[in-house]
């Protein structure tokens, strides 16, 4: 249990549940209705009861600590409760709903994998970093496939400018470059995030010291990888801690990521303190310190545009669950619609 992160604090809080005959365990793989759990007595295949409407707390995901009722003579082992999550990597679902998807829980380090074999997509890196910072874990950017880059140092410098406060490591699973430093940096429960083809599973196998994670070739037609990891699963690392490999993320939607965006765009947050207006939107306002920084070259326009884009997305995601905020966002569109209708009804209107 200690190898998977169980500690004295969790033991103290779990104490009363032992009196009820329950045992703690960690979900190393979660499927619909079933959960593979590492418990004190060994691995357990436990049933997950349908949610009773209290939401995600009763739906375990990989990385969750859970309380388990052991199997009896005529009953299967059952997950009774999902214990409090210290951290959680959460993204918005691709559907137009207010639902969120927990990708991993109780994570200490989020390793954002970025392939140097492909053109850098700084906007996607910033989006993933916002997700990582919001989780409560520590993000690290891992630039993979350095052996296939003509200038990895320059690429690392470019990424570092888009990731203030985040360590950026250049690695190659082929040559072994940077793996010693990466091993020293990673701690606790480590989750690998990134698109298919970023080299997450190959990198994970190097960290594990053996080929436990499935890998696949990248398509030559579009440079994209195939989903070789079909599910999220915890695997112990030889140097301590556990690794959580994830399927490639085609989409990274933000969900209630205000703090994550503040960390990701830390320099904009800092500049905004000197704006004339406390509610400055950094668009056309006079006395805007952020716009002044763009004008004198301290901040790039690309960086500010990315900030605005992700802020808008995060606001609209929040509006899906906040009726008042949704009404405020819809009010300008309704006013425009009324004006258009009034114009069309005017006797002077010509189609």
From TrEMBL:
Q: Name one GO biological process term.
A: ribosomal small subunit biogenesis
This protein's UniProt keywords: Cytoplasm, GTP-binding, Hydrolase, Metal-binding, Nucleotide-binding, Ribosome biogenesis, RNA-binding, rRNA-binding, Zinc
- Domain of life of the native organism: Bacteria
Which cofactors are reported in the record for this sequence?
Zn(2+)
Query: Region labeled Disordered — which residues?
Result: 1-22
Q: Where in the cell is it found?
A: Cytoplasm
How cofactor binds (record note)? Binds 1 zinc ion per subunit.
Q: Which GO terms describe its molecular function?
A: GTP binding; GTPase activity; metal ion binding; rRNA binding
> GO CC annotations?
cytoplasm
- The positions annotated for binding Zn(2+) are 275, 280, 282, 288
**Is Hydrolase among the key words of this record?**
yes
Q: Which residues form the EngC GTPase domain?
A: 105-250
Pfam families in UniProt: RsgA_GTPase (PF03193)
Which ranges are annotated Basic and acidic residues under compositional bias?
Answer: 7-21
Annotated residues that bind GTP are located at: 144-147, 194-202
Instruction: List its EC numbers.
Output: 3.6.1.-
Oligomeric state and interaction partners are given as:
Monomer. Associates with 30S ribosomal subunit, binds 16S rRNA.
Its family?
Answer: Belongs to the TRAFAC class YlqF/YawG GTPase family. RsgA subfamily.
User: Record's NCBIfam families?
Assistant: ribosome small subunit-dependent GTPase A
What is the name listed in the Swiss-Prot or TrEMBL entry for this protein?
A: Small ribosomal subunit biogenesis GTPase RsgA
């Amino acid at each position: 249990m200690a190898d998977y992160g169980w500690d004295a604090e969790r033991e103290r809080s779990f104490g009363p549940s032992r009196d009820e005959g329950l045992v703690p365990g960690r979900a190393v793989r979660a499927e619909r209705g079933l959960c593979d759990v590492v418990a004190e007595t060994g691995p357990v295949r436990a049933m997950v009861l349908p949610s009773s409407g209290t939401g995600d707390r009763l739906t375990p995901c990989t990385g969750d600590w859970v309380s388990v009722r052991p199997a009896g003579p005529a009953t299967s082992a059952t997950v009774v409760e999902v214990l409090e999550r210290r951290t959680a990597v959460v993204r918005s679902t691709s559907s137009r709903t207010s639902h969120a998807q927990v990708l991993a829980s109780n994570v200490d380090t989020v390793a954002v994998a970025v392939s140097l074999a492909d053109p850098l997509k700084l906007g996607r890196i910033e989006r993933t970093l916002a997700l990582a910072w919001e989780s409560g874990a520590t993000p690290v950017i891992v630039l993979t496939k350095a052996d296939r880059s003509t200038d990895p140092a320059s690429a690392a410098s470019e990424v570092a400018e888009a990731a203030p406060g985040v360590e950026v490591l250049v690695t190659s699973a082929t040559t072994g470059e940077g793996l010693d430093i990466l091993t020293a940096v990673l701690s606790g429960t480590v989750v690998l995030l990134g698109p298919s083809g970023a080299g997450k599973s190959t990198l994970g196998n190097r960290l594990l010291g053996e080929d436990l994670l499935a890998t696949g070739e990248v398509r030559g037609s579009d440079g994209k990888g195939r989903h070789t990891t079909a599910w999220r699963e915890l695997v112990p690392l030889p140097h301590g801690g556990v690794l959580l490999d994830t399927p490639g993320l085609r989409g990274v939607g933000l969900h209630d990521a205000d703090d994550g965006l503040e960390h990701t765009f830390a320099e904009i947050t800092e500049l905004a303190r000197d704006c004339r207006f406390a509610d400055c939107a950094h668009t056309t306002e006079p006395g805007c310190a952020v716009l002044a920084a763009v004008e004198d070259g301290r901040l790039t326009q690309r960086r500010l545009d990315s900030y605005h884009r992700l802020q808008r997305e995060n606001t609209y995601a929040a509006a899906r669950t906040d009726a008042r905020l949704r009404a405020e966002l819809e009010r300008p569109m309704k006013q425009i619609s009324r004006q258009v209708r009034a114009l069309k009804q005017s006797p002077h209107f010509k189609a």
